[in-house]
Specification:
Elements lengths: L13 E6 L5 H15 L5 E4 L8 H15 L3 E6 L5 H13 L4 E5 L20 H12 L4 E6 L10 H14 L3 E6 L3 H13 L6 E5 L5 H11 L5 H10 L3 H21 L4 E5 L5 H11 L1
Parallel strand pairs: 1-2, 1-8, 2-3, 3-4, 4-5, 5-6, 6-7, 7-8
Length: 290
């Protein structure tokens, strides 16, 4: 199933989950349980991330292949430009196609651990748009390609005009749909979509939502990606910081309200950043479908 074929029906919203390849046996067991539990909710698709510098390449290919083959769920593999040239990237794409994968999220990628800035491989690509164009040229319309977007602007850019220029380049290179970075204020998403539409970008722009379950964790994520925690939400989280159950309750309530508003205002679906855990995402989706 090509993800691009999931859109177009106004009565059907796309719900998807994102996982990351585990680094330990315990993490692998947690992921297996999460895939099983969230799979019961019949997601439209599941995506699996690609570690910095391609460090989880083998596990990414293995997990997406197994999800699609054994769980029968549409799967999407992430692929980045970091630390790889055209030959290596082409080989990964070809292997995914051979495994029956029809969807790839093409990203520039973050620097590997220990590096502070992105370094282009001598025979690689500097931008996600270049990778999208490379995959499209190699496999035509056989693959459905996704691109990333940043409602609050990429942490390295902080320039709305440049952000839209980069997004336009991804679309022109052959992206079929867009998934946003996490955000906590829907106003940022809708303002971004409006800017994109003014630039003639009419692809589905799927909002990315991460339920907050741990205050220190979300603070770390937002500092890395440049997302903003609204003042009223931050105050509630600060007050409950020492109470894990209360933090989860606040996070689920906020994400559920976000999702209800996004769907009521015609967002094409919701992409959940699950952090390989099922309870919060399950609770939110059950409320949305209830």
């Amino acid at each position: 199933m090509r993800i691009s074929d999931l859109f177009g029906n106004p009565n059907h919203r796309v719900f998807s989950f994102e996982f990351f390849p585990p680094k330990t046996e315990a993490g692998a067991a947690t992921l297996e349980r999460t895939i099983r539990e969230l799979g019961e909710l019949s997601p439209s698709f599941i995506s699996v991330t690609y570690g910095a510098g391609g460090s989880t390449r083998e596990r990414t290919v293995e997990i997406v292949s197994r999800i699609q083959r054994e769980a029968g769920i549409c799967a999407m593999a992430h692929l980045t430009c970091v630390g790889a040239g055209r030959t290596e990237l082409g080989a990964v794409v070809d292997r995914l196609v051979d495994e029956g994968i029809e969807n790839i999220m093409a990203l520039r990628g973050d620097p590997p651990e220990g590096q502070t800035s992105f370094q282009r491989h001598d025979d690689g690509f500097a931008y996600a748009a270049d990778l999208i164009g490379f995959i499209r040229q190699r496999h035509g319309r056989r693959l459905s390609l996704g691109g990333a977007a940043y409602p609050e602007m990429h942490i390295e850019t902080r320039d709305a005009a440049r952000e839209m220029m980069h997004l336009r380049a991804k679309v022109d290179a052959g992206a079929d749909f867009i998934i946003t970075q996490l955000f906590f204020d829907n106003g940022d998403y809708f303002a971004f979509v409006e800017r994109a539409r003014r630039r003639g970008i009419d692809l589905p722009i799927i909002p990315g939502i991460m339920p907050i379950t741990n205050v220190a964790q979300v603070e770390r994520f937002t500092s890395l990606c440049g997302a903003r925690i609204p003042d009223d939400l931050r105050e509630r989280l600060d007050a409950a910081r020492a109470d894990e159950a209360a933090v989860r309750e606040i996070g689920i309530a906020h994400a559920t309200a976000q999702c209800r508003d996004l769907l009521a205002r015609d967002a094409p679906g919701i992409h959940f950043y699950t952090l390989n855990q099922s309870p919060a995402t399950r609770a939110i989706l059950e409320q949305l479908r209830g």
